[in-house]
Amino acid sequence: MLSRQSRLAALAFLIAGLVLSLYPSAEAAVVAQQRADHVFSVQRRAGSHSVPIFLPREAKKNSEGRGPFFLMKLGVEVVLSARSGPGVLYVSGSVNGCTPIQIRVSIPKGSGVDTASWAAFGVNGAEGGTLTHGALKVKVSQYLPTCSLNPGEGTLTWSFERFGGLRVRSLAVLAGSDVETTRVAPPKLVLKPLYPVEYPEKGEGFPIEFRVENVGDVAARGVAAEIVPRSSALVAARPHIVHLGTVGKEARGEFTLTGRKVGKYLADLRVGSSNANHPDALVAVPVRRPSAGGGTSWWPLLAAAALIGFLFFGWRRYRGS
Amino acid sequence: MRASKAFTAGTLVVLLIAVCLGAIVFATSAGASTSGPIHTKSIREDSFKNYDFSNMIESRSHADWGIDMIFFGNANINKVKRKLSPVLPASGSPMYARLNNNGSGWTWDRDSGIKSNPCPTPGAYADHMRLYAPSNTDYFWSSGWGSYVIASTHEDHHECWFTRWSGESERAEHQIAQDWLGMYGGNVQWSTFRMENRMETGNGGPIIQGNHHWRQDGKATLVLVQ
């Protein structure tokens, strides 16, 4: 016969087990994989290699929140011909006709292999560098875009295309290049402007603070905010752009605005990033009249003094005539 | 002496003709234009302005044409130009687009574009499309559209003659999308993405400012590139 405490402990264990089984695993599962290096025939200008892929029914267009998310990893080894001229080579991985990754290798006009460079957009934003003696071995990861997400059977395609005089000696998609599911969410920024407690006065500088929250798991990189007033009655003090760098969970910043005229004015507050979304917000700023005792309140007094003076001298002239 | 007088008269006539021609060319090529409001289009990981510009100045008076096409899926500038080269084999003069794809600020991209005819004579016209993307990759990347590029389109009418004019972007946009569909088939979404750059009269007629004949519906056509 189990004691009451033992029965409670067993129940708690059961509930915990149920909860854990419902909570999604953080581990990745491979959907499709390149098991061995695929070597392309580089004599032609373009080539491709396709394999079937099966995306589970969770692969929906609106796979946000907790996912699952689908990540492509593309490893590439390129060796350019020593006699290559200027031109461009794209190596890409696509799923169902949409491309998560394009690696661009280029030689600028009037140059040779020694000046070759590469660039791509990966999970962490813009990546790139120079080739060593015309050779490049690189691995880039990126989430599948929503235009790739069709549940069921589909096609995973590795391809290349050459432009201009660029010549390639060898090109391979490396073994281990794959598409896998993950619960690690891509970066997603949420922008929240924080308004001043009191309405600012005309001519007075006041701060517009803002908070940028990253609700994804991957850090947002190259984050910067800018403010653009919609009316010349509102002036933003420099700098108009605040660089926040890498945002893991949250970052704060502020701009200083000055209202030149009394009224309600708008300013666009925008946030950019190299690997996350670009949220924006419309900030409404009501600029009020300066309070009594301010510098401009002397004007009515001066006007009154001028009127009195005018009346006084007018009366003296009348008396004197 | 007589020969000298004849020479002077001849020179004067030639000069007069040259001045007249210059005046006509100036009159037909001049014509300041002003676009609608310049907006920032923020699409997930990227931002760009909804017009391209005649030089690196972001203002309504320097706007050339509205952005009205998006090639997405597996696009880059070289690929789109190569695929359209059978119908747009020539190139034109450069313009500039304002882009921000990495958060570190706005940059300019320059493109001369591709044309159906390098120099249309009287009675002829050319479709002209300029394509823009970050210059380090020649494509944008979006978690919605994959790799994509943006484009502005217009027609150049009898460009190599005195009465030249440009515009009718909507017609050029549809012609180029139709050409794409004819050559490659696939997915073309006509005038679907809001660009906030509608420039036409209330009943859909052109807005004529000098030699700038605006007519676009403010919605970009999306073309899937594979």
Percent range for β-strand residues of chain B: 35-45%
How many DSSP H or I helices of chain A?
2
Most extensive interface between two protein chains, with residue counts: A-B, 44 and 34 residues
Tally of discrete structural domains of chain A: 2
**What series of H and E elements makes up the topology of chain A?**
HEEEEEEEEEEEEEEEEEEEEH
- The helix content of chain B is 10-25%
Say what oligomer this is: heterodimer
What order do the helices and strands of chain B follow?
Answer: HEEEEHEEEEEEEEHEEEE
Describe this structure in words.
The complex is a heterodimer of chains A (321) and B (226). Chain A has 321 residues and is mainly beta. Chain A is built from two helices and 20 strands. In chain A, strands 1, 2, 4, 9, 11 and 12 form a six-stranded antiparallel sheet that branches. A six-stranded antiparallel sheet of chain A has the order 3-10-5-6-7-8, with no helix packed on it. Chain A has a four-stranded antiparallel sheet with strand order 13-14-18-16, with no helix packed on it. Chain A is elongated. Chain B has helices spanning 2-29, 77-84, 169-184, and strands at residues 40-43, 46-49, 51-53, 63-74, 90-91, 95-100, 107-111, 114-115, 125-132, 140-142, 146-157, 165-167, 188-194, 207-209, 212-214, 219-225. The relative contact order of chain B is 0.19. Chain B has one domain (31-225). In chain B, strands 3, 4, 5, 8, 9, 10, 11, 12, 13, 14, 15 and 16 form a twelve-stranded mixed sheet that branches. Chain A binds chain B through residues 88, 90, 92, 94, 97-100, 102, 104, 119-121, 125-126, 128, 142-143, 145-148, 161, 163, 186, 221-224, 226, 241, 243, 268, 270-280, and chain B through 40, 42-47, 72-74, 76, 78-79, 82, 100-105, 134, 136-139, 141-147, 224, 226.
